[in-house]
From TrEMBL:
Domain (Carrier): residue spans on this chain: 35-90
Annotated protein name in UniProt: Acyl carrier protein
Keyword Nucleotide-binding belongs to the record: no
Origin superkingdom: Bacteria
NCBIfam families found in the cross-reference section: PRK07081.1
Keywords (A to Z) from UniProt: Plasmid
InterPro entries reported for this sequence: ACP-like_sf, PP-bd_ACP
Length: 109
């Protein structure tokens, strides 16, 4: 079974424990406050395509920078791909992997 990109980039398997929670609600708030989407972020499921919702490549870079600041992580080159930012679930997984844990919170959050 292939490891997710974040596990390969971070060189770690997901761990529970004291890792900060990466919630879908936090990501939705970043998206809503930023104006990077053409629709209301609260209307999106965790799996909806953010690019179809209006996220641009410029917006994804700004989102990455906001996530780095919020969670104190740095996205390695291996994660600088469209699919890393294509959905709330993909973002949660990537950030959680960089933090050394698993995504936390529940669904729409």
């Amino acid at each position: 079974m292939r490891q997710p990109d974040w596990q390969i980039a971070a060189g770690t398997a997901p761990r529970g424990g004291d890792a900060p929670v990466v919630s879908a609600a936090d990501i939705r708030t970043l998206l809503a406050d930023s104006g990077w989407l053409a629709i209301d972020a609260s209307a999106l499921s965790d799996e909806d395509d953010l690019y179809a919702a209006g996220l641009t490549s410029h917006g994804s870079v700004n989102l990455m920078l906001a996530l780095e600041e919020r969670y104190g992580v740095e996205f390695p080159e291996q994660l600088l791909r469209r699919r890393t930012f294509e959905s709330i679930a993909a973002i949660r997984s990537a950030v959680a992997g960089l933090l050394g844990g698993a995504p936390g919170g529940m669904g729409a959050g």
